[in-house]
Design goal:
By secondary structure, the chain is an all-alpha fold. It folds into 2 domains: about 70 residues, no CATH class; about 100 residues. About 75% of the residues lie in helices and about 0% in strands.
Amino acid sequence: MTKEQYLDLLRYYFRQAKAEDLQEIISDYEEHFRSGYEQNLTDEDIIRALGEPKQIYEAYLSEGIITEKKGLLKGDLKEDLKDMFDKAQEEFHTTMKPQLPHYWQEASKAVFLTSGTLAYALAALCWFITLIITYLLSIQWQPLADVAPLPAVSLVTVGAFCLTGIGAGLTCLFIGQECFKHYKTQKAKEVLG
């Protein structure tokens, strides 16, 4: 086998590698041949010392020195995809699955805290708006300067509106209390266990 045949075999085996990796490998082996020629060795002696191209390729691949373009050297896409899926699933089961209960607990605590805070804010907003609108409905006021004042609203309507606003605020308050109760329960479970 000659130098050119040897390098062609290397190019053939490393055809799936990235272009820059292939160029670097070929230039390294050309350098081996140059240094062998300086020592007055024949092509056969140099090739024997370097080893078979297929063995070189397998060594590079197993040590992770080269990277592949496609990562699919087997040729069967279905098998490769199945292997990749199996590896990903195995990695998920070993790394992520044990952590999922912790993530779920953290997410549930965050949801309870956020919901409780939002419910308290809505309760305060309901009561504030109810007070303002009840006051505005109980007096005669003129929203715009050129418009006649609004007609008087009956006391029953004002009372019903006021009770509805207070009820809505209390509903939000009780929802907030329940959310914080569940949040504290989750926090206590975390501390105890």
